[in-house]
């Protein structure tokens, strides 16, 4: 199709050691919204998602499930794909990093980088956990393994290195020439100063991992994490033959802010080294944090999307996630806010306007779109306002300001409600003059409804399609061209379509209870009734934890644990996950860092009694000294920390745990 511009966007290629939660769902929803929006603006769009299926964590999880890795990842990929389908988020390309096409692409990219002189063989030295058979990233000599807590050993292995250091200046030049490459602005500044600080060469292969893409002719080397995973964006649209499809370079990679560095430093450097086109933009969004108190007390607070979709519909979840936070910033997720918005904006807002308008058309105009007659200034004003909203909404979609786009749409909906309430078409008589006035009012309202329906379609695909049918409009709302959308296009004389259930109001507490009950069932499926059992490997949703070998009591006695009380707690700049605590352990007050910042508000921790390992050698975390360790359970697939504690509060500070 000549002339149709192309647009290629991606979600991250999600790692398959767990199942999708609200964070993955958010990114995938945003990608789907952009895809729908771009299509309505005349683009040929490809959206890619997929599963990252290599590495030591998969090796371990497969071993635990007692199945070969290939079978484990096939089941995981099916589970991810199945959920996206169920949620109406089917991507155009679903790439698995075990696909042959992807394997070929990684090997090809490596060959190009090597031919161009950016790959060399060297030695990688790092801290290695013998028990887990894995290097521990960023660990220093003497550090323990974060997974199993055992001491790590310093191990050196032969690796292939990528000359990342050669790309410091090319990357800085590239950022300068392409100021929109990294979004939002704050992330851009972070990355620029990171690169300005100097780049170290990057180890891109391993010989200690078995489950990976082999480096051709160099076995047992396999590619390591990023060289493998990032390349999936390219293999999804043709790999070595990318030019045929015409989709590369990508227009935008959507990523969580935790992986922006890999996407804006490593990835463009790999491509530059191979002399391949670099993506146009990387957009990092924030995280949804849990509404602390209520959620953390339930059994694991990883929010899963299916129960919400079942209870309120996917449109409600999409609307909430995009409306609630500014894209790029962190937001708070709570069921309370979700249901509140559902009732106020969807049930009472768009849903009510649609059913009210349809009922009035039915009653007053015989179920037809009337012909507008003489217009009054208030009709003109509403027309003008709505026409202006079109421009505003499109501009905000274009800038990924989804919350603002929705705000503008909902402000038009509020204007329509107000207009109806003021004009009161139901109170007018059947005189000729008032009949024609009624026709004008209802045509005006229906026209506004048509326009907001089109504008809201990228975010609310299911319900806007229903409103389209309700209004008896031709074709599908998805096929409307946004660039041609104008006030005044609603043709009179059309018969209304079938009535539609849009957003039935829900009672908040009941809705929340039901969502939570469904979520609990999903997290802890009853053994007899496991609807997704075939698609979900055993233990995949739980934290993979092989049974450790037994230890004697004398080993246990080496660990000294005591009851401590938290005296102060504060966040650490530059370490999103850590809190700096001072803890009274009876004999002294210790400074301890704990990786709980994403789940615990510092203020709420003060005075809390916790279990502390007091004889752990002091270590530095992100440059902050930590002298001891606070004990927490790792819950759910994400390993959410839940502090071990003493709710009865009558334990003495300093008491030893035995
Ligand atoms: Zn370990």
Structure description:
- The protein contains 21 helices and 24 strands.
- The protein has about 650 residues and is of the alpha/beta class.
- The strands form seven sheets. A six-stranded parallel beta sheet has the order 3-2-1-11-12-7, sandwiched between helices. Strands 15, 16, 17, 18, 21 and 24 form a six-stranded antiparallel beta sheet that branches. A four-stranded antiparallel beta sheet has the order 5-4-6-8.
- α15 (about 375-400) packs antiparallel against α16 (about 400-425).
- Zinc ion (ZN) binds next to loops.
User: Radius of gyration in whole Å, from Cα?
Assistant: 28 Å
Based on Cα principal axes, name the global outline: globular
Number of strands: 24
Spatial separation of the terminal alpha carbons:
73 Å
Major sheet summary line? 6 strands, parallel
User: Unreliable segments (pLDDT under 50, ≥5 consecutive)?
Assistant: 292-299, 528-548
Q: What is the subunit arrangement here? A: single chain
The fraction of residues assigned to DSSP E strands is 15-25%
What class, by secondary structure content? alpha/beta
Strand order of the largest sheet: 3-2-1-11-12-7
* Mean pLDDT over the residues: 90
Query: What is the helix content?
Result: 40-55%
Helix segment tally = 21
Ligand types: zinc ion
What is this entry, summarized?
The protein is an alpha/beta fold. Helices cover 41% and strands 18% of the residues.
Describe this protein with a few key phrases.
6-stranded antiparallel sheet, binds zinc ion, alpha/beta, 21 helices, globular, 658 residues
Question: What's the SSE blueprint?
Answer:
Blueprint (H helix, E strand, L loop, with lengths): L5 E10 L6 H19 L3 E9 L3 H10 L3 H18 L6 E4 L3 H16 L3 E11 L4 E3 L16 E10 L5 H10 L4 E2 L1 H12 L5 E2 L1 E2 L15 E2 L2 H4 L2 H4 L6 H4 L6 E5 L3 H14 L8 E4 L2 E3 L1 H6 L7 H8 L1 H11 L6 E3 L1 H31 L11 H22 L3 H22 L8 H25 L4 H10 L37 H16 L29 H5 L3 E12 L2 E10 L4 E6 L7 H4 L3 E5 L5 E3 L2 E3 L2 E2 L1 E4 L4 E4 L12 E2 L1
Parallel strand pairs: 1-2, 1-11, 2-3, 7-12, 11-12, 13-14
Antiparallel strand pairs: 4-5, 4-6, 6-8, 9-10, 15-16, 15-18, 15-24, 16-17, 18-21, 19-20, 22-23
Helix pairs in contact: 2-3, 5-6, 12-13, 12-19, 13-14, 13-16, 14-16, 14-17, 14-19, 15-16, 15-17, 16-17, 17-18
């Amino acid at each position: 199709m000549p002339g149709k511009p192309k647009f290629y966007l991606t979600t991250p290629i999600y790692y398959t050691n767990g199942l999708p939660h609200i964070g993955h769902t958010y990114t995938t929803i945003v990608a789907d919204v952009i895809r729908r929006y771009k299509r309505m603006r005349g683009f040929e769009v490809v959206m890619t998602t997929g599963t990252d299926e290599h590495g030591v964590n998969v090796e371990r999880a497969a071993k635990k499930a007692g199945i070969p890795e290939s079978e484990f990842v096939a089941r995981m990929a099916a589970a991810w794909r199945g959920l996206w389908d169920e949620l109406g988020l089917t991507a155009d390309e679903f790439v698995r990093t075990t696909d042959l096409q992807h394997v070929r692409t990684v090997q090809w990219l490596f060959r190009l980088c090597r031919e161009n002189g950016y790959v060399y063989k060297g030695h990688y030295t790092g801290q290695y956990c013998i028990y887990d058979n894995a290097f521990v990233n960023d660990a220093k000599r003497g550090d323990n393994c974060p997974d199993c807590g055992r001491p790590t050993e310093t191990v050196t292995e032969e690796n292939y290195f990528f000359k990342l250091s050669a790309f410091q200046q090319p990357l800085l030049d590239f950022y300068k020439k392409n100021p929109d490459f990294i979004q939002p602005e704050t992330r851009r500044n972070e990355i620029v100063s990171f690169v300005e600080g100097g780049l170290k060469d990057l180890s891109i292969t391993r010989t200690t991992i078995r489950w990976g893409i082999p480096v051709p002719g160099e076995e047992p080397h396999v590619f390591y994490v990023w060289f493998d995973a990032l390349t999936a964006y390219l293999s999804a649209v043709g790999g070595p033959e990318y030019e045929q499809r015409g989709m590369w370079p990508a227009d935008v990679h959507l990523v969580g802010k935790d992986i922006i560095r890999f996407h804006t430093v490593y990835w463009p450097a790999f491509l530059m080294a191979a002399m391949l086109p670099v993506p146009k933009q990387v957009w990092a969004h924030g995280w949804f944090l849990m509404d602390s108190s209520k959620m953390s007390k339930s059994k694991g607070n990883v929010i899963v999307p299916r129960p919400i979709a079942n209870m309120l519909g996917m449109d409600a979840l999409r609307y909430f996630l995009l409306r609630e936070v500014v894209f790029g910033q962190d937001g708070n997720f709570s069921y309370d806010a979700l249901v509140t918005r559902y009732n106020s904006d969807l049930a009472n807002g768009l849903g009510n306007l649609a059913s009210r308008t349809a009922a009035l058309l039915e009653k007053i105009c015989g179920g037809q779109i009337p012909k507008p007659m003489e217009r009054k200034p208030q009709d003109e004003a509403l027309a003008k306002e709505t026409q202006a909203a079109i421009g505003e909404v499109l501009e905000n979609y274009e800038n990924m300001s989804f919350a603002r786009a929705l705000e503008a749409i909902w402000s038009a909906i509020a204007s329509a409600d107000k207009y109806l309430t003021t004009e009161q078409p139901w109170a007018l008589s059947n005189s000729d003059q008032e009949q024609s006035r009624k026709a004008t009012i209802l045509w005006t309202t229906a026209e506004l409804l048509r326009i907001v329906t089109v504008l809201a379609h990228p975010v609310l695909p299911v319900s806007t399609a229903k409103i389209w049918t309700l209004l008896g409009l031709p074709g599908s709302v998805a096929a409307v061209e946004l660039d041609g959308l104008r006030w005044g296009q609603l043709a009179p004389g059309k018969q209304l379509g079938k009535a539609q259930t849009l957003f039935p109001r829900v009672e908040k507490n009941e809705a929340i209870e039901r969502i939570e009950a469904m979520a609990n069932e999903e997290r802890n499926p009853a053994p007899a009734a496991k609807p997704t059992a075939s698609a979900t490997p055993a233990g995949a949703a739980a934290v993979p934890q092989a049974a450790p070998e037994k230890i004697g009591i004398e080993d246990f006695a080496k660990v000294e644990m005591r009851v401590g009380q938290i005296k102060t707690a504060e966040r650490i700049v530059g370490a999103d996950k850590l809190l700096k605590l001072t803890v009274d352990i009876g004999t002294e007050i210790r400074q301890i860092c704990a990786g709980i910042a994403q789940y615990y508000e510092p203020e709420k921790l003060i005075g809390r009694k916790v279990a502390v390992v007091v004889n752990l050698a002091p270590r530095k975390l992100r440059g902050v000294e930590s002298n001891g360790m606070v004990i927490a359970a790792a819950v759910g697939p994400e390993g959410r920390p839940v502090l071990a504690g003493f709710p009865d509060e009558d334990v003495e500070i300093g008491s030893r745990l035995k």
